[in-house]
Amino acid sequence: MTTPPRPNARPAIPHFSSGPCAKRPGWSLDALKGAVLARSHRSKPGKARLAEVIARSRALLGLPADFQLGIVPASDTGAYEMAMWSLLGARGVDIFAWESFGKQWLTDATKQLKLKDVRSFEADYGALPDLRQYNGERDACFTWNGTTSGVVVPDAEWIPHSRAGLTLCDATSAVFAYDLPWERLDVVTYSWQKVMGGEAQHGMLALSPRAVSRLESYTPPWPLPKLFRMSKGGKLTAGLFAGETINTPSMLAAEDALDALKWAESIGGRPALIARCKASFAAIEAWIASSGWAAFLAERPETRSRTSVCLKITDPWFTGLAADRQAAVAKGIASRLEAEAVAFDIGAYRDAPPGLRIWCGATVETADVQALLPWLDWAYATVKAEHAAAVA
Hints:
By secondary structure, the protein is of the alpha/beta class. It is 35% helix and 15% strand. It folds into two domains: 237 residues, Aspartate Aminotransferase, domain 2 (3-Layer(aba) Sandwich), CATH 3.40.640.10; 123 residues, Aspartate Aminotransferase, domain 1, CATH 3.90.1150.
């Protein structure tokens, strides 16, 4: 492999982190000028802003009218654990895990909640477990899009329309980039910091009528922290889903979320967001087809994420290296790209196989992805030559 010439074109915005993700095109601090600052979040203006985040989110997602949607603490992780602690235990639960966050939900269920009736279905990075094992009689926990593996659920046909259990879906890097089948989902969680490029620490929690019914009829046997409580006296805490947050939210972050939502509306809504993600993914897909050293980590084409695009290195020279040297090469590529200021934060997740992870959410410009690709070839060839020379 000869070292290609240093590319001339550079991404205008080199932000490809999978979280926090790139801000929307044209963003600046001026977007936050209208924030409700130095006022209580429970004041009329504060509550109105939070309610607006919920209303615009509902409309952009196409959320069914009978679903509840609320702002909760601690990003997607807080939202998902809030749901687990509040809803699980009434039935047996099937947990499908194929990357780090799904495995975390499995740990929560078995080691923290200590649920007695748990079936786990696991797969290595790049693959999906057998989702057909789910029959609808039990609850189910899964991620829609594996942010750390680049493996996405291809469809929801494995979830019965008529089911007794609840489906708890961690959809943080899928919402706004995929059309979700709401009729097959009972709990959906996500954060502002992914596809819409908002700020971290705030989560969103959507509940179907079936999930609300569980909340109002089931009391878990374990203590619930204040931050996890969504019902009182057997009734849903309705204010939580109207902008009355459990803890104090950042009104700057809320204003930023509103700015992103308004931007999405201005470009054509959810279909436009999805189209932007598809275009960026297609650029990488075309490059992979002619690459002599890289491939998608996801094994099957229909399971390849269009947002968190995870790549592995397939060059025989690389695969023949010891594990520590593979990790050093992959880290070297990411470091070289960062030093050149053409790509920040694109190393693979720490628990994933050595490789690269390129965020292609809706706030990323396809032109920037296209400008990045020649730099990947240059960086890999350069690092490979350096490592080969060091061994010689």
